């Protein structure tokens, strides 16, 4: 059984769930899941968890993202992208390179976003996009996100292309709409590509066509083991005694760790002979559980580690 993640270069026009279905069929495995939805309009880096990798989804989703987006000034749509109906048209003649650069700079840092109705967020268990299709709009809470970088790549009015480094949970459609509002004429997203998620980028990704050709190979391009999947997290080796106790659900003590300790509260990978045996939070001062110095988040029972 393959356990880890596949970095798929998602094509335009299909959903993330469509990608999961194809991976499940090609690898002949049931336990497959994606690590963060990309809209059908979007392309690019989509990590797909396979086998035991499905237990790592929350950790894989936590990293920052990089997107390349094109927006069209002068039109607002109900979905905030080109797949929706045009709600309003405004002139964009007063917009120039300087005003676009200034607007981009104003969005860098901590900003608040109102999640769009056409999103996978749920209200009473129902995805918002299903309510939106019925013409229902519900109250949503704003959320804080971080825009680390917002570079202007190209301007060919009414089209503007940007590249964004941002925290998880950022809606690029909403960012494009907000940029249009700052400039005055409004805007909507016309093209979106996820360039990177965490430390995984386009160069790590393979197409579904390549996967179809190589699915039964011993080594599949774009496939990363459990250990490689969490390469963004600190790695700590545990000694043999701590490894045996981990198998019984007992967190290791500092004395069972080889190497430098992380900052308190940091999520880490615990390895035995280079193999992932647990994901844990370093918590030497915790009160609820007095055994060990780590809070166990996931434990992997790896047999025959020495092999």
Automatic annotation (TrEMBL):
The active site is at residue 39. Keywords: Isomerase, tRNA processing. SUPFAM superfamilies: Pseudouridine synthase (SSF55120). CDD domains: PseudoU_synth_EcTruB. It comes from the Bacteria. Its EC number is 5.4.99.25. GO terms for molecular function: RNA binding; tRNA pseudouridine(55) synthase activity. GO terms for biological process: mRNA pseudouridine synthesis; tRNA pseudouridine synthesis. Residues 24-172 form the Pseudouridine synthase II N-terminal domain. It catalyses: uridine(55) in tRNA = pseudouridine(55) in tRNA. Residues 173-216 form the tRNA pseudouridylate synthase B C-terminal domain. HAMAP family: TruB_bact. PANTHER family: PSEUDOURIDYLATE SYNTHASE TRUB1, TRNA-PSEUDOURIDINE SYNTHASE. Belongs to the pseudouridine synthase TruB family. Type 1 subfamily. Responsible for synthesis of pseudouridine from uracil-55 in the psi GC loop of transfer RNAs. This is tRNA pseudouridine synthase B. It comes from Desulfuromonas soudanensis.
